[in-house]
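Run log, item B.
One chain of 352 residues. Sequence copied directly from the ordering sheet:
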Amino acid sequence: MKALVTGSNGFIGSHLIELLQDRGDTAYAMVRKTSNVDNLAGRTVDYRYAGLTDPDSLTEAMKDVDVVYHLAGMTAGRGVQDFERVNGGGTANVMAAAKAAGVEKVVYVSSLAAAGPSHHDVPRSEHHTPSPVSIYGRSKYSGEKAAHDAAQDGKLHVTIVRPPVVYGPRDDDFLQVIQMAKSGLILKLGFHDAWFSAVHPHDLTRGILLAGAKGKSIPVDDAHALVGGGLAHDVAHDGHHEAGEGVYFVTDGGQYTWAGLGQKSAEALGKKGFVVTFPVPLAYTAAWFSEMFGKVTGKLPIFNRDKVREGAASGWWASIDKANAELGFTPEMDFERGIEDTIRWAKDNKRL
């Protein structure tokens, strides 16, 4: 197979390039000419230069490609317009370019944030109607709707993969949790216990490639969950409801609390973690000040109100039953092994 990976220099994209190369596929790494490619150091990589907001460059990058794995996107921005332009409009451009270049299939790697929070007693499933709560989540959902629209003429096969919290080597976000755990501090937002799913790149990249090889395509219909045809998020369903066809959650199969993830991280470091509960109203206030400081300094704040909205939700827990049944996906890296692998990388790279 000849595959193009957008966002190939990123945390997940670089792992996907490695897996594609290791299994013998031809992997083209799409980046901008100004991109930092340190994550791909040590690999012989065939780069193709393009940007999500430049349709002509996208079409050129996709020449002679069988499948496009679309991972590029914005995870931090100044506001709604920035996120929508890249995650929504950029994904629409990818779909249009794929059609123009004669690509057979596109796998869009979206996010659990696009689906929205889970119910405490019912994991998020593909047949649930999306209800994102954050700016980031709504922009990724816009990308999913663009993917759905692109599939409606039947000329392009499109599959969506939704990861939950992703952690592992080369990630900076969850690394902050590990660094706090090393100091013995574990922050918990709010006084309720919510369920979370997580996944290591070892399992996520395998799931993405399985979606490319075996995943069903978004059907030509107007009753899909992506366009309002799904069920409420508290409704379980025996089997795999057709409203979620072509969409897959990929996780390690575990069910965690945020404090539990922190505790497991501390244990892997040989530490005893102390959980500190951060009330949600106080977190919103702190996030506002963080955003104001970012405006003054010109730097994007790591902590903002969008993250508080997600953290204060009822949970981010998803089912992998459909990925198992239709893709043959079985997790291989549980959190205990995954966090040990992540800590080893952080220590080797003097990040911990």
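Observations after the first pass:
- Residues 173-196+256-315 form one domain.
- The chain has a mean pLDDT of 93.
Flagged for discussion on Thursday.
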